[in-house]
Amino acid sequence: MSASKTVTSSASAVSTSSGRSTPSKLVNGATRNGSAAAGNGSTGTAKGKRRSKYRHVAAYHSELRHSSLSRETSVVPSFLGFRNLMVIVLVAMNLRLIIENFMKYGVLICIKCHDYRKQDVVLGSILFALVPCHLFLAYIIELVAAQQSKKTVGRQKKDLSTEEREREQQAFRSTWRYTAFFHTVNATLCLAVTSFVVYFYINHPGIGTISVFIWLLSAQYAAPVLRNSIDKIAVMDIASILERVMKLSTISLVIWLAGFFALFQSLLNALAEVMRFGDREFYTDWWNSPSLGAYWRSWNRPVYLFMKRHVFSPLVGRGWSPFAASFMVFSLSAVLHEMLVGIPTHNLIGVAFAGMMFQLPLIAVTAPFEKVNDALGKIVGNSIFWVSFCLVGQPLGALLYFFAWQAKYGSVSKIHV
């Protein structure tokens, strides 16, 4: 009998609370009833306690709602937590690799342990000290050319005859020819002398590293992976080579990003500050590039603008097709990249040259992704850029040049003796 009275009183309490608060659309029964109780302060604390006591019997599932990850949802959820999770996982995985490297190899950073010759250090220091000299020579050439041009322009402003005016114009053109000639000789001598000394007189390929952080990463993490890859490359174990490329890709990416920040952000901005150079757009957001072409236009802006002005545009102006002009630009860049890598390692094997020339078909493949308006297309193009450039290209090139060095001077050459 008491049980039936309790049920009856409970039902009457619910009907009373629902009668006093009749919302048109319930979102959360407990919240609605609680707000109604707060609004009727004159009903007293007893009714408020009774209303909160039976809050659990209100209907919660009273309207149509969709899951946050469903396509039908009207509110786009934030994935900031997943991004934080990925960062934490990335840090944890790399921390595990650091601990594993320390447990397996210990501390490999030792300046005295490397085979640096005194001649390498002396010649390398002299070459670094001579690098700014061609800049001062270029400044002197420009200063002399400006003085000559100023005199020529001043004489042209005077009332001269046609013959004298043609003579002044010819002198003006000859001044610029001499200027271009001396600039060419200056740049060629700087490149030729440096390349000759590095290739024939400096034995160690590490001389010239300006970033201590890059050297530490290379000595502690990249060197063991490269050394362990020698026997795999010698027997052409494809599966093991791919595994080494994947393992080396992480450290090569970190070294590459550190080199980018050291050169383009720190060194060039410091040089621009000293020289009071205002245009400091040395790069743009190349990391968001939807194609390889967009990457090369935004990665190294000074070199890109130089090539466009002095190689690409003159060739197009003389009737070359844009593709042929681009082919010539990348051919010249490929030669310079091969010299940049092959001369310090004493191995001009053409890997850097082939890697640069392979950019042309990749640019053609990823060009459509740059033009699409869909965000997915740009993501695909950006992913192709990262995979081809950092996951495959750089670590594979490092492995091949390291193997060529070892085959010429290191352990691989001793095996075949």
From TrEMBL:
Location of region: Disordered: 1-53
Comp. bias intervals (Low complexity): 1-46
Chief location of this protein within or outside the cell: endoplasmic reticulum
Key words of the record: Acyltransferase, Endoplasmic reticulum, Membrane, Transferase, Transmembrane, Transmembrane helix
Record's subcellular location: Endoplasmic reticulum membrane
Pathway: Lipid metabolism
Xref: InterPro entries: MBOAT_fam (IPR004299), Oat_ACAT_DAG_ARE (IPR014371)
GO MF annotation: an example: diacylglycerol O-acyltransferase activity
Family: Belongs to the membrane-bound acyltransferase family. Sterol o-acyltransferase subfamily.
Function: Sterol O-acyltransferase that catalyzes the formation of stery esters.
UniProt name for this protein: O-acyltransferase
